[in-house]
Amino acid sequence: MSDLIEGYLGKTVERKKSRVPAKLDYIQSATGLFLGLFMWGHMFMVSSILISKDFMYAVTKFFEASFIFDGGNPLLVSIVALVVFIIFITHAALGMRKLPGNFKQYQVMKAHADNMGHEDTKLWFIQAFTGFAMFFLGSVHIYIIMTHSADIGPYASADRVWSEWMWPLYILLLLAVEFHGTIGLYRLAVKWGWFDGNDPKTTRKRLKTWKRVLTWFFLILGFATLAAYMKIGYENAQAGKVGERYTPTAKVMQLDNTTGRLG
Ligand code: HEM
Predict the structure, then answer these.
(1) Is 91 within any annotated ligand binding site?
(2) Is residue 256 part of a domain?
(3) Cα–Cα distance between 100 and 109 in angstroms, integer?
(4) Is 229's C-beta closer than 6 angstroms to any atom of ligand 1?
(5) Residue 80 near ligand 1, beta carbon < 6 Å
(6) Has 148 been labeled as part of a binding site?
(7) pLDDT tens-digit profile of 6-56?
């Protein structure tokens, strides 16, 4: 009954406003923080290919817990991907509350932002646009990874990127993720006053510099990584080796040792 009254009047019988919007804001911040930090970790793991194929292979096997299960268990990666997917969907659903509902609302917000000439208000538009794009781009990627977790590795990933045409999607996703992620973390720090100290104005300037540096850093790292997977995938396709799995150097040497030859 109380819900019904609040639904009609916007206030409870005690004439109080609901605390739900504040709680939803908090959940949106918490899921955003998790996803932002997850993406930094994810980027470092995926970029292991820039060091070597063997290193990327070792990272993959580590996440499959090969130190517990012989040869690793990709189901663990699927479970992590499912958890990330649920957090991703929760964050997106909560983010939808902030999008303008019709053209009139959009027009009001745009006029307000243009009139204020305030950089942080303009950042909101980038968040809304990149967030919307990620609804589609992010979902495709996470679903594929979740259902094909056994196909992650130096060759399997490179084949997906090149021969299975994921690179155009990754270019767009990378741009959306890096802008959305660093702007999001910056806005979180400002919103909750994490590093405010005695002089919030100087802190905000410093945070802006960090935002710019981190965006460039992860964009450069991301595109270098993507180029590396595309190159390996292209070479595999040229050599007719699509679908082959990578054998780490240590195993090749072991194999040769058993036949008496050096690897
Ligand atoms: C547990 C969840 C995830 C796993 C295991 C995972 C794994 C991977 C792997 C192995 C790659 C290399 C290419 C490939 O194999 O297809 C990759 C690339 C990529 N992932 Fe994820 N991913 C996850 C979640 C996400 C999320 C939530 C996003 C953002 C919404 C994301 C964005 C990207 C982007 C942009 C690339 C291309 C990066 C580049 O090549 O520089 N991933 N991911």
Answers:
(1) yes
(2) no
(3) 8
(4) yes
(5) yes
(6) no
(7) 788 777 777 777 889 999 999 999 999 999 999 999 999 999 999 999 999
